[in-house]
Amino acid sequence: MGSPVRVLAEATPATRDRYVDLLRVASLGVVVLGHWMMAAVTPDGVGNLLAVVPALQPLTWLLQVMPVFFFVGGFSHALSYRSLLRKRPEGSADSVYAAFLRARLQRLLRPTMVFVLVWGAAALLIQLLGGGGGLTGVTLRLVTQPLWFIGIYLAMVAFTPPLLRLHERYGWGAFAGLAGAAAAVDLLRFAAGVPYVEFLNFAFVWLAVHQLGFLRADGRLGAGPGLRPLRRPALLAGAGLVTAVALVAFGPYPLSMVGMPGEKVSNMAPPTLALLCHGLWLVGAVELLRAPAARLLARPRAWRTVVAANGVAMTAFLWHLTAMLGVYGAMLALDAPLPDPATAGWWAQTPLRLAAAAVLTAGLVAAFRTFERPAPPSATAPATTPGTGSGPLAALGATLCLLGVLGLSMVGLAGLLEGRTALLIAVPVSAPAAVAMTLCGWLLVERAGRGRAVR
């Protein structure tokens, strides 16, 4: 018997698009590396390297790769939902939707909730013992911030069935509609000064990128009528890059494609039309690399590496900030020299810090990776089918999960004893309330997707 990774790699069907798996792992890896590089930690707090050295901000046009992950998500969600429809031809739309949500949320929320509960218990203990100041307090605020990505991804999962139907009816028109809505939001925001309208682009921008994944699933990002195989991705990349450059050069958009401390306008929070165009150029660029990547992934060793990384990617993403801040905390505790950010000494020390963060992340992955594995079906459990009304129940559960995860990413885990809150859609939310909301939502999705026993 070979290792589980080798067995999985060798069992890969010939029809599987291996490049998608590589993009999923690579995009999360770039995000992790970017977070490690941007952290400018001093004894006084945590800053942003891009704010210290603004000349480095153009690098975000390469390192801001979340659009690629959401693009890959659209591809995977389309295939997964269609597969479920084929397997349950007799099922109602409600039952298939509930089963789809349950299957997708299980693997996403299991490692996330373990992360939240472990850190929540640690945060409570620290504050009961009178801690929570200095770097510890900053850590308690920062470690949950990447959960915004989980919240947006939950929304994409929930919207997959209706948006997939729009895609099947209108194709590129569905994407154009979402992109046009994103442009209209920015116009109302910057030209008309309409308050709060910008938050709609959390949906329009990211769902437009997600819609590109549907187009890829149907082979519509490749050759079109009268076009050579690489012409459409090249046009997509070129148009996206030129438009993004023009928007930044002549519009109200900042240069950085990630959020910067103290900036009045961010391309990320909420997303802007400039970020959507940035996503277009990234999607076109990665599609241009598809053929050489496929040749690389045909090699057994390369494919085994991707399979192994995919099995722990979410766990590594959840814990990478913990590892990075742990390295800095150890340096401060040991009175190790911590040069000022962006100085020669800081850059010389960077490879050692990155290596230490990678080792600590690997240890955390080893400890928590089991929660990322899908739960095996019980041999004694009765067959079940979601019943009538399961779709709305699952949608309610997914909404609660989305709001809970986003709320937790905003409020953090500091100030638990003081009842610290953050404003989520005009409603103050505390960390315990956000966790309770997420758990209740997950239970609703589980209940709706599992359904009742079939006699």
UniProtKB/TrEMBL annotation:
Cross-referenced Pfam families: Acyl_transf_3 (PF01757)
Keywords annotated in UniProt: Acyltransferase, Membrane, Transferase, Transmembrane, Transmembrane helix
Superkingdom of origin: Bacteria
Ranges for domain Acyltransferase: 18-364
GO MF terms, alphabetically ordered: acyltransferase activity
InterPro entries: Acyl_transf_3_dom
Coiled coil: none
Transmembrane segments: 21-41, 61-79, 112-135, 147-164, 171-190, 196-215, 235-253, 273-291, 312-334, 354-372, 393-417, 423-445
Protein name stated in the entry: Acyltransferase
Species of origin: Kitasatospora albolonga
Higher taxonomy: Bacteria, Bacillati, Actinomycetota, Actinomycetes, Kitasatosporales
